[in-house]
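Exercise 7.
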Amino acid sequence: VPSPTDIKKSVTGLLAEVVPTDDSAEGVKTLTGAEYEGEGAGEAMRRGTAYHAALEQADFSLTAEEQTARLGACVRDFGLVDPDKLDAALAAMRAECAGGTVYREQPFIFVSDGEEEGGEKGLLIQGVIDLLVIRGNECEIVDYKTGGINAARRDKYMRQLKIYSAAAEKLLGLKVTRARAYLIDERRFMD
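Solution. The predicted structure, written as tokens, is:
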């Protein structure tokens, strides 16, 4: 009898199997949330979750002041969110979403045809796309990231975006024109 992990995997779990988790094996120092912000690992995860929740709940048409008041009332741990970094992220997402239909935190599950990163044929792959912007028969994907970046993390993020792109193409029949990560702490996109 196959185990549940032989049948279905999350994108994160799948990538953990195919991407080295020890960056030092590649001569690259890992920048964890703790090292990047001087916080503990649990605090770094809470901060990342707070940014994701804020960007999920954000109304891109509001001013920074209106946004802060609104999100402060509905996002747990909103005090961990840096207002300037959030403003930069909101401005970037506002521009990214212009003229498109926006979907946030979109869950997916699909059957691998073996072409995806580490996916065996017939394996169910599940994940959540942070931001999906659709224009006609095309779409763009954005994944939010907090913490530091290095070569190993960049490779992992790019692999993750390839799986997200496969999901959008297979499930929605859309052509993915761009998939990229937004690095919240660096206030920029990683293409």
